[in-house]
Amino acid sequence: MEAELKEMLNDLDSLKQSQPDPSNLASSILKLQSRVEHLTKLAKSAPVRRTKVQDMSAEVVDSNPYSRLMALQRMGIVDNYERIRDFSVAIVGIGGVGSVAAEMLTRCGIGRLLLYDYDKVELANMNRLFFRPEQVGMTKTDAASQTLSDINPDVVLESFTLNITTVQGFETFMSSLRNKSFRPNKEGSGVDLVLSCVDNYEARMAVNQACNELNQTWMESGVSEDAVSGHIQLLIPGETACFACAPPLVVASGVDERTLKREGVCAASLPTTMGVVAGLLVQNTLKLLLQFGQVSPYLGYNSLKDFFPTMEMRPNPQCSNAACLERQKEYLLVKPARDAAIIAKMEAEALSVPEGPLHTDNEWNISVVDDSAPERTDATSSDALPEGLTRELPAADEFQKFPAAEPATATFDDIEELRKQLDALNAD
Amino acid sequence: MEAELKEMLNDLDSLKQSQPDPSNLASSILKLQSRVEHLTKLAKSAPVRRTKVQDMSAEVVDSNPYSRLMALQRMGIVDNYERIRDFSVAIVGIGGVGSVAAEMLTRCGIGRLLLYDYDKVELANMNRLFFRPEQVGMTKTDAASQTLSDINPDVVLESFTLNITTVQGFETFMSSLRNKSFRPNKEGSGVDLVLSCVDNYEARMAVNQACNELNQTWMESGVSEDAVSGHIQLLIPGETACFACAPPLVVASGVDERTLKREGVCAASLPTTMGVVAGLLVQNTLKLLLQFGQVSPYLGYNSLKDFFPTMEMRPNPQCSNAACLERQKEYLLVKPARDAAIIAKMEAEALSVPEGPLHTDNEWNISVVDDSAPERTDATSSDALPEGLTRELPAADEFQKFPAAEPATATFDDIEELRKQLDALNAD
């Protein structure tokens, strides 16, 4: 823009030098020139994008946008940080959680981001991070693409302005997840992880359906209507409960959740709760993709008490989702071989450990016990079949109020009952 | 900018209509016009600020930036959300945590923010949220003021480009905290809370000194050098441990921490960890200011295991900070009256509860027990005196590795030893 304005000034200069005639022309031109000079000053505050970076460098200079991330290698946290450029992450719902998750992954230098939303930016969204008042009226996908590409032009951005709960939207969603042009030799689908950051159960069920069909690992996130609690959950088709294995009451009862909304009433939201949930979601994404730390199967955030419940949910062998049952069968078939491989690897690692103390200065000869042993599997395959939902209660010793619609509140009997009701409804 | 460009087009039109002479003038003008038209298109993407809002409204319309926050009242979380406009929060250090904390408070509609930093924005900061590449080279205070006032022009922003660890910087810091022009009838200092978001111990000790002198409640935050853990801590002079009550090793040993930094080596950082810490910090700020939920005295975040340790630290009666000892004396003097008032209030509330069941539909007559009873105080005041540091270990039943410099790692004996060393060094 500044170059454009400079050219304009030059043109005006030459126009002036040709001196075609009267004094009023000269004064008009002077006036124009001062205007353009003023514009130039204004334009100086306009965005200038940074250039793309070929390779991630660990060099410690102020101009290196990746120095603090590559330092994770020197700190011993991540083996190969630059691998992040190979990964594709799809984010469904670019609202209070999804937009912040997208920004975090963009700043971390993720290879490719796929963004899905059909909504527009409103002033009523300004109490959460990311969107700015000047973006009001833009689609969330356009506004996000603009902001994210300014922040980090190295990230490949693909945005889809669509509703995944429509037939057409779901088909486009599925084909975009299957598309492998970014990394043609990748196994499975075209993305490494799907993050669900939507605000309704219908959309969660659509993500669940797509991921079950594609055997795609995904993470679910949510924030309560009263804005003070939230959760993230890891879903691996066949291995963990899917979203339909223990459906929330509103889903199981077959009620259209849109009919529950009342005119003139909206959910509360806070940038804090959504920022924390987005942070926990992307931190677990990084742990999963870059293989460090422990990925949480479920992590809740109760902000009133700063309490963080955890649990695990196994798949429901009577799940109403056919694709889930397929994935469960596949998982049980490969599980013995997988467990054997893990045990073999652990034994090999144990053999390679020298007989003496692990550390020469470890005078007490204390070492940390590896707790990554596979789940105990019983001899008969029928015993190995999960007999329904098993839940581990949160570790806290005090009463914890969960949001009403959370799967965790339902007891096994409730689920069984709800499933029957749901099946009956579906059979109509 | 668009208005400016429109005027320019009008001027060019009138210039053209006067038709002074040759054809090259006309063609030059046409060329200029097309340039200006192009500029107009470019300018459309330039920021347009929203206008100020007189009162916070709960009306559920897309154009209301506060509808989702005012909904906290209808949800029964906050009694009077609009009170947030009365509060002043000072944020020291506008880096990875402080900038996000400032944005969250701005989007929540805080009354007044005071920002302190002396650093400039670098491309190497782009792996954390908030700052944008086009702000590189600006001071962090200027860049933050620009972004925050665009997001929410209702917030009163005061920024101080200074280093609080210098004599001059500390004096300006102190006088800015004392300034009561925003709310002249406020008790105590001119701010309601100080948030420390700095990255070094010298600055933390400066905040500690200022807050002890002013009897100012503050919150401390920090993120580990390996980017995967962090913490927040509430410090109430006289009532909780101050930062000097159990100083980190590097502070206690009197070593200049700057000498520990090595050329070509930087700390790692992640937008996730910093986003989570900022979220937890501001959530606790909102709980403290708007009086809902429970404010955490200390909350850690170990992201590798998604573990969140909590603890409490009482003041050290042998603290090396004279102002801390003053505050401890004051606190012990008012404590019996304070506890009596709390007990009287609780008894009054218990009396006002009707004899029958609390809820008519509560057939089991179950009610939640109030756990906000004050600490047990013994009859003799000498017994009530804390006899040194008492620590509550984190609630988890597994081994937890704390960052080396955390106060929590030191045992009482270590602290005693370190304090003696520190006093000896100070005496030199």
Automatic annotation (TrEMBL), chains A, B:
<keyword id="KW-0479">Metal-binding</keyword>
<dbReference type="GO" id="GO:0071569">
    <property type="term" value="P:protein ufmylation"/>
</dbReference>
<dbReference type="GO" id="GO:0046872">
    <property type="term" value="F:metal ion binding"/>
</dbReference>
<dbReference type="Pfam" id="PF00899">
    <property type="entry name" value="ThiF"/>
</dbReference>
<protein>
    <recommendedName>
        <fullName>Ubiquitin-like modifier-activating enzyme 5</fullName>
    </recommendedName>
</protein>
<dbReference type="GO" id="GO:0071566">
    <property type="term" value="F:UFM1 activating enzyme activity"/>
</dbReference>
<feature type="domain" description="THIF-type NAD/FAD binding fold">
    <location>
        <begin position="66"/>
        <end position="320"/>
    </location>
</feature>
<comment type="similarity">
    <text>Belongs to the ubiquitin-activating E1 family. UBA5 subfamily.</text>
</comment>
<keyword id="KW-0547">Nucleotide-binding</keyword>
<dbReference type="InterPro" id="IPR035985">
    <property type="entry name" value="Ubiquitin-activating_enz"/>
</dbReference>
<dbReference type="GO" id="GO:0005737">
    <property type="term" value="C:cytoplasm"/>
</dbReference>
<keyword id="KW-0833">Ubl conjugation pathway</keyword>
<keyword id="KW-0067">ATP-binding</keyword>
<dbReference type="GO" id="GO:0005829">
    <property type="term" value="C:cytosol"/>
</dbReference>
<dbReference type="InterPro" id="IPR000594">
    <property type="entry name" value="ThiF_NAD_FAD-bd"/>
</dbReference>
<keyword id="KW-0862">Zinc</keyword>
<dbReference type="InterPro" id="IPR045886">
    <property type="entry name" value="ThiF/MoeB/HesA"/>
</dbReference>
<dbReference type="InterPro" id="IPR029752">
    <property type="entry name" value="D-isomer_DH_CS1"/>
</dbReference>
<dbReference type="GO" id="GO:0005524">
    <property type="term" value="F:ATP binding"/>
</dbReference>
